[in-house]
Design a protein that fits this description.
Number of strands of chain B: 3
Strand order of the largest sheet of chain A: 2-8-7-6-5-3-4
Strand content of chain B: 15-25%
Oligomer: heterodimer
Helix content of chain B: 40-55%
Shape of chain A: globular
Largest interface: A-B, 25 and 28 residues
Number of helices of chain B: 6
Number of strands of chain A: 12
Number of helices of chain A: 12
Distance between the termini of chain B: 47 Å
Structural class of chain A: alpha/beta
Strand content of chain A: 5-15%
Order of helices and strands of chain B: HEEEHHHHH
Largest sheet of chain B: 3 strands, antiparallel
Structural class of chain B: alpha+beta
Chain lengths: ~400, ~120
Amino acid sequence: MKRIYLDHSATTPVDPQVAELMMTYFTEYYGNPSSVHYFGRQVRKALDNAREQVASLIGANPKEITFTSGGTEADNLAIQGAARARLKKGNHLITSAIEHHAVLDTFKYLKNNGYEITILPVDEEGLIRLEDVRDAIRPETILISIMHANNEVGAIQPVEEVGKIAREKGILFHVDAVQSLGKLDIDVNKMNVDLLTISSHKIYGPKGVGALYIRNGVRISPLVFGGSQERKIRSGTENAPGIIGFGKACELAGQRMHEENKELVRMRDKLLNGILNSIEDVKVNGPRGDKRLANNVNISIQFIEGESLLLSLDMIGIAGSSGSACTSGSLDPSHVLLAMGLTHEVAHGSLRLSLGRQNTDEEIDFVLQELPKIVQRLRDMSPLYHAANS
Amino acid sequence: MYSEKVIDHFTNPRNVGEIENADGIGQVGNAKCGDIMRISLVVEEDVIKDIKFKTFGCGAAVATSSMVTEMVKGKTLDEALQVTNAAVAEALDGLPETKLHCSNLAADAVHAAIKDYMEKKTKI
């Protein structure tokens, strides 16, 4: 069976050039980068190069890059680190309802530890409103954290404008850019960002590596103690092969991003329009056009449940994702879709198909050929469909 | 995550549909929680002669619905009432822990259909 991978927002395959480079640093250049001898110096040099490659993709200075174990750790480091370091200035933090759990759960943790938090609502497209940001700011506000692009519905947030507001008020601004890195132009200076989270495995790099951009002069408290690596902000021997792979992935993303995006938009629209033309009662979740990530399709197919849809797709070789509760282990469906005002019934039937650089027109045609059959089969089994059509 | 039996019943569900003029109809669950199961059955001389289901839910919900219809078809009402959600899960070679509380409602749906039948019968 031919397998079609349409879950690139979850993770991407490692680019062969990245994997080849990394292998060298597992077996040939294996020194500890903190060692002064030849073995260590070779790795240190490669790490410095990776830091430059990562910094270059987001318009930062290499000294402003701190490597982490991934996006989740970078989000935690940014938010907890800023909250602790700025406690004397205030204890109020602002985020949005559609953030990744790495952000939302960190906010909840801080709330349980004496901080005050405001969670901004979103509109029906999954976009925050600038007036809500302004209204939420208090004298004791110390941090605003807003994601660049949403991982489920691809909604691109007005981070540049939020950054301006934060800058005017002297509030730190953190952006979770895990989903937008390599898909959207990121310039930390233009975006008025103080802290920015990125991750390697979303851009054809290895898993288990990420980075936090920390603007020069911004002080945050570390989460991990015990070494002097990463300027004491993130102690622990660096994951050298991973970081070097991340650097290479950033270099490749910078070279390919704009061309790839054109192709992704074309295939995304072909997929979305094809679904809308062949299946009734389908709702598009998230914005259309330029306010949406190039590779993201998110729909709710009414009267059926997301996990059943995913299982059925998987049985014919198509890998996607769902905001269904049954895929998360909780009783509630996606917090993002609920925040956008979807009912539980509609949110349960959501399907995310996220495209990547390997996908082909032939694969999209196959999905468009098979999806309507699966939907009809599940609807024939659904009491909700029966009730709506009787 | 799912046993082969669950996948089999999900892929080839038995007794899908709705019986017209059914003797008893039972529906459990709600869309907010995630799963809805609707069972319709025909009873002759206290024996379940025919049974069909419709389910809005995940793979486990479909599989448990399908399995329970097989388990109670041909059984007396008393025997069918003895079938539990746990027995349905066991017949499917188990379900993931997270599915037990939300998707394994199939026996409840059968019991609700039998209750509906009994109430209608009493009214007659």
